[in-house]
Design a protein that fits this description.
The complex is a heterodimer. Chain A has one domain: Roll (SH3 type barrels). Chain A has a six-stranded antiparallel sheet. The radius of gyration of chain A is 12 Å and the shape is globular. By secondary structure, chain A is α+β, with helices and mostly antiparallel strands. Chain A has three helices and six strands. Chain B is elongated and about 90 Å long. By secondary structure, chain B is α/β, with parallel strands linked by helices. In chain B, the strands form two sheets. A seven-stranded mixed sheet of chain B has the order 2-3-4-1-5-6-7, with helices on both faces. A two-stranded antiparallel sheet of chain B has the order 8-9. Among the domains of chain B are: 212 residues, P-loop containing nucleotide triphosphate hydrolases (Rossmann fold, 3-Layer(aba) Sandwich); 173 residues, no CATH class. The longest helix of chain B has 35 residues. In chain B, 59% of the residues lie in helices and 8% in strands. In chain B, helix 17 packs antiparallel against helix 19. The chains are: A alpha+beta, B alpha/beta. At the A-B interface, helix 2 and strand 5 of A face helix 4, helix 8, helix 14 and strand 10 of B. Strand 5 of chain A pairs antiparallel with strand 10 of chain B.
């Protein structure tokens, strides 16, 4: 499955990993980092973290991890470990 | 109880046609299954793996159709044993299980943009297929829409909208099951390539005029409180406190009621049967064994009601979200918390609660470590031993010394369970690829059918699979402790003395003497070992067995007799170091064959119960030896 990063010079300036995005912000998924294990990349893709998908950061757990995201009409939580593998381009803060 | 028995029971109804339900977790699959099959479902395990299997039947125009609820899966590219089962079974590659004749895809209308990919993968299997679309009422109320007929045309298969929690649409679905050989089949299969199937999914949803729903406002409002750093934490502890209290305050009186009823029955038997062997066997052996099995039922049923309720409302995943960080330290995940907490009441419902965990490695890690949690059966044992160790009026730092000791025992049990889980997860059950992901579904009203089915199936599985093992072992233990009868020798003695004489010359006494060298370094004498053998039927039996062997006037509270009990050389048996060693031993040892039976049932093999029993025995022995040595060293 091809959900690897597709980097262009323009984008790379604004690209961050999902774990860096604070609650309340929205971003567009670019892909997963190149060193992500295939099965993990596949699973994240199946859950909706696919290129061009929009993701909202909803809230972090009181102890700081995991974090709830909304992607493709579902709310689900990821730990920092997985959120650090997903490359996104944040939308400007509203 | 062989593995092949487990498999054969739910499946082989010769000539019956089989329909399997396929769908992602939270799609409402189990709800559809329960409405289709009612309470006729049989649960077991897939052969060779710790993956639960549910098969039921439904009748259409007098024809019986077998319905199988496959484990939830996000895709047919498996990354966990549960998903591997689904993929293999659908491909017809599962050993000893035939490919189903037809499939019912269950998909949540509110998350169709995601699950359309799974629909595409399943259609490529080229089996007769029908799509049951759940939550379509919720889709509309949240501002989305879908044209069901257009969707059916675009997919090339029949589509039926069902509202699973109300059961509407189920009759239509059931009627369709009979005629699966006439279901429309897609003229062209969806593409295999990932990007192409994405595009296929988008075009299908476009054709069906699909508009995705708005986020659920009610859920957002509730979550603002229930996931709030302060209020959410308060709510979590309140819910868990009530959960735990319910297990004690509601289930305990019911359990005592069952036990009183059976004691009365045993008394009646004793009055009316002359033959002493038969009287003992029926009155104590069989009725006692049935009592051991039945006393777990209130707890199990109540626990599964509470779990199903929290799960169906949507709170369970929120609780797991809040606790995940804590559980992650042990290598487990938030959802294991409920199983661990339940084990404070009793390891048996706790072990059964691991079915809610999606990773089978996590399930096994929780199952083999949950019995270290301080269950309620340890309480009478601890009460007796703490009473032997410290006087009631003793105070430490202004606190009751007995209370402090008891608290330390509970703390030790809880901590050792979590430490053991982290050790198991980092060694023999390491290397799970499954990333931690958990959906938080919108809050919904639970369906009564689903709640009833959860309670019913838990009780049935326990009685059928574990109950027989527990009953059998109870009988063996009764025979060990009470035979041979020694009628001639006990003639003319008081009942207390007679009881002590029988037990001290029983087969169990032989066992106690035989294992005495093993426990001698811990300071246990052979009569303590007899009580240890007896406590295998249930830990609290340790107290009454010890009462009987020491010929205490009140076997239910043998403290007085034990403080003065001496061994063959006239030394006191229950010295402080020995009592400390005994407490430590009970903290760690898997001294409960009912737990072993349930482990066998849930892991589908004797390997894990054997492993758990062995490591806990070694741990218990070593820790008891260390504790005793320290106590002796300190001059206690």
């Amino acid at each position: 499955m091809r959900t690897r990063t597709r980097r262009t010079r323009d984008q790379s300036r604004s690209e961050i990993v999902l774990a860096q995005l604070p609650p309340g912000r929205r971003a567009t998924v670019v892909g997963t980092l190149p060193h992500t294990a295939d099965v993990v990349a596949n699973r994240l893709g199946q859950l909706g973290f696919r290129a061009t998908a929009q993701v909202d950061v909803l809230r972090r757990a009181p102890l700081g991890d995991p974090t709830i995201y909304r992607v493709q009409d579902t709310e689900l939580c990821l730990r920092r470990r997985e959120a650090q593998l997903i490359v996104v381009v944040p939308e400007p803060d509203r | 109880m062989t593995a092949c028995h487990d498999v054969a029971a739910p499946v082989t109804i010769a000539g019956v046609r089989r329909v399997a339900l396929v769908g992602s977790p939270n799609a409402g699959k189990t709800s559809v299954f329960n409405h289709l099959t009612g309470l006729h479902a049989k649960t077991g395990n897939y052969p060779g793996v710790t993956v639960g299997r549910s098969v039921g039947t439904t009748k259409v125009d007098g024809v019986t159709i077998a319905v199988e609820d496959l484990p939830g899966t996000y895709s047919l590219d498996p990354i966990s044993p549960d998903e591997q089962v689904v993929t293999d079974l659908l491909a017809g590659e599962y050993p000893d299980i035939d490919r189903p004749d037809a499939l019912v895809l269950v998909a949540d209308a509110t998350t169709l943009r995601r699950s359309i990919i799974l629909v595409g993968q399943v259609l490529r299997l080229d089996l007769p297929c029908l799509l049951a679309l759940t939550m379509s009422d919720e889709l509309t109320s949240r501002g989305g829409r879908i044209d069901v007929e257009a969707l059916s045309t675009a997919l090339g298969i029949p589509v039926t909208a069902v509202v699973a929690h109300r059961g509407s649409g189920i009759d239509t679905l059931r009627a369709q099951l009979a005629s699966f050989d006439r279901w429309q089949r897609p003229p062209v299969l969806p593409p295999a390539d990932q990007d192409a199937v994405d595009a296929w999914g988008r075009s299908v949803l476009n054709a069906a005029d699909y508009v995705a729903p708005q986020p659920d406002r009610r859920t957002a409002r509730i979550d603002r409180v229930l996931l709030h750093p302060l209020w959410g934490t308060v709510a979590f502890f309140t819910v868990m406190f009530c959960f735990f209290q319910a297990l004690f305050t509601i289930a305990a009186p019911l359990r005592d009621g069952i036990s009183d009823g059976l004691t009365w029955l045993g008394g009646q038997v004793a009055e009316h049967i002359g033959n002493p062997v038969l009287r003992g066997l029926l009155g104590q052996g069989i009725i006692g064994g049935v009592g051991t099995v039945l006393q777990f039922i209130p707890q199990i049923v109540l626990l599964f009601l509470l779990i199903a309720l929290l799960e169906n409302i949507g709170y369970m995943s929120r609780a797991a979200f809040l606790m995940d960080r804590v559980m992650a330290k042990t290598g487990l995940e938030g959802r294991a918390f409920v199983a661990m907490l339940s084990s404070f009441a009793c390891a048996i419902p706790g072990i059964m609660a691991t079915r809610t965990l999606p990773s089978s490695r996590d399930r096994i890690a929780t199952i083999v470590t949950a019995p270290l949690m301080t269950c309620s059966a340890r309480l009478p044992v601890y009460t007796l031993l703490v009473g032997l160790l410290v006087a009631p009026q003793t105070q430490w730092w202004g606190l009751s010394a007995q209370g402090v000791t008891m608290f330390l025992l509970y703390l030790g049990g809880g901590a050792s369970s979590l430490i053991a889980a982290s050790l198991v997860k980092s060694t023999i059950l390491r290397g799970d690829l499954l990333p931690f992901t958990m959906e938080l579904p919108p809050y919904r009203f639970p369906s009564l059918t689903v709640l009833l089915a959860a309670m019913w199936s838990a009780a049935k599985v326990f009685l059928r699979k574990a109950g027989t093992i527990i009953l059998g072992t109870s009988l063996v233990l009764w025979a060990l402790l009470n035979l041979p009868l020694r009628e001639a020798e006990t003639q003319g003695r008081s009942p207390t003395d007679a009881g002590a004489y029988v037990m001290n010359h029983s087969y169990a006494a032989d066992v106690g003497k035989a294992v005495a060298p093993v426990f001698q370094p811990l300071g246990f004498d052979w009569r303590t070992d007899v009580a240890l053998v007896g406590s295998l039927s249930a830990r609290e039996v340790f107290v009454s067995t010890l009462g009987q062997v020491s010929a205490a006037t009140n076997p239910a509270n043998p403290r007085q007799a034990l403080t003065t009990m001496t061994d063959d050389h006239g030394h006191r048996v229950f010295t402080a170091p020995t009592v400390i060693a005994l407490m430590t031993y009970f903290m760690f040892a898997l001294q409960c064959m009912s737990t072993i039976a349930v482990m066998r049932r849930e892991t589908n093999s004797w390997r894990w119960p054997a492993f758990a029993f062995s490591y806990m025995f070694v741990l218990a022995w070593v820790m008891a030896f260390v504790a005793r040595s320290i106590a002796v060293g300190l001059g206690a």
